[in-house]
Amino acid sequence: MVFDLSDLTGEVLTLTPMQGLGIPVALCGAVFLALGAQFQHRGVGKVEAQLGGASSGLSLTQLRALVTRPSWIIGTAMLGLAVTLQLIALYLAPLIVVQPLGAVALVITALVNARVSKVKLDRLTVRSIALCVGGVAVFVTFAAFVARERPITDAQLITVLVVLAVVLAIAAVLFAFLRSRIRAIIYIIAAGVLYGFVATLAKVVINRFVSDNFDALTLVCIVALLAGTALGAYFVQTAYASGPPDLVIAGLTVIDPLVAVAIGIVVLGEADGAPLFAVIAFIVAGAIAIYGVFELAKHHPQARR
Question: Residue 103 above 80 pLDDT?
């Protein structure tokens, strides 16, 4: 039996023109994400050279030094713009469509970092990046055909908040006791998981503001969103001190959307009614993208150093 994606239009909701607008907005956000990451990485590198290594976690002194570095401030401003564009994209389109598009930032970051650091990307590194981007591309292609917006119930939201609380607790405990043995890839995975929840909660808060449904649960969402953002940002800055920026972006633009999409599919029901072959495509494409991240951590010239 031959499957045709066009046959899905009669079974699930395809993107409207307004939802489709979320895709170019998310792509613009990916550009600013890539540039912001490069500038922030430069700022962290200068602080590390001035005050010592930070691979086991940035100290308060190093954090204070960061906010005085022009490159880090510029990078933070660009990331702020990237987040703003991402929020607009989340407002316009389903989460499982726009969130994976951040993978475009990986290609841009890799090219910019190679030029700035004068490090040539070898064949294995390029292959790893291709696996990341290719896996996410297949993922978002299928998502664009099977995604459907659904009202988020209080029960679903409470489920997301409870799981996030557990993730925050585990991340905090592991960092407190194992920080001296944590490698860059672990910081990146932890930040990606946290940001996946942050993207989901941002989508919820936006929808509730738009529908004028601000209640106590929405306030809890905002608090959880800020907590996840703060801890994830700290992990990202520490990862910059122990790994190249394209490895950091690879983790964030693969782990982040896969977690967000998993929440969207499992908890929020954004892919309910998707045919079996689409579900299989999700799993295979996600596995390929994650494999690419680990391969990049293993083979990137700067990571090997």
Answer: no
Q: How confident is the model at residue 303 (pLDDT cuts 50, 70, 90)?
A: low
For residues 254 and 245, give the distance between their C-alpha atoms in angstroms, rounded to a whole number: 14
Distance CA 147, CA 101 (A): 15
The amino acid at 129: I
Buried b vs exposed e over 187-214: b needs ≥16 C-beta within 10 Å?
Answer: bbbbbbbbbbbbbbbbbbbebbeeeeee
Rounded-to-integer distance, Cα 54 and Cα 73, Å:
19
Contact 221, 205 (CB under 8 A): yes
* Predicted confidence (pLDDT) per residue in 175-202, tens digit: 777 766 667 778 888 888 888 888 888 8
Distance, in Å, from the CA atom of 291 to the CA atom of 226, rounded to the nearest integer, reads 30
> pLDDT tens digits, residue range 38-93?
888 888 878 777 766 555 566 677 778 888 888 888 988 998 898 888 888 888 87
In angstroms, the CA 100 to CA 96 distance is 7
**What is the distance between the alpha carbons of residues 30 and 11, in angstroms, rounded to a whole number?**
31
Q: Residues near 278 by Cβ (< 8 Å), separated by ≥ 6? A: 8, 142, 145, 146, 271
Q: Which two tokens stand for residue 17?
A: 């023109």
* Six token digits for residue 269: 């029901």
How much is the pTM? 0.76
Q: Which residues contact 23 (CB under 8 A, 6 or more apart)?
A: 89, 93, 97, 98, 101
**Nearest alpha carbon to residue 239 among 231, 230, 247:** 247
Among 74-88, 154-168, 239-253, name the one with the lowest average pLDDT: 239-253
Residues 6+ apart with CB under 8 A from 173: none
Cα distances from 131 to residues 134, 175, 265, in angstroms, run: 5, 29, 23
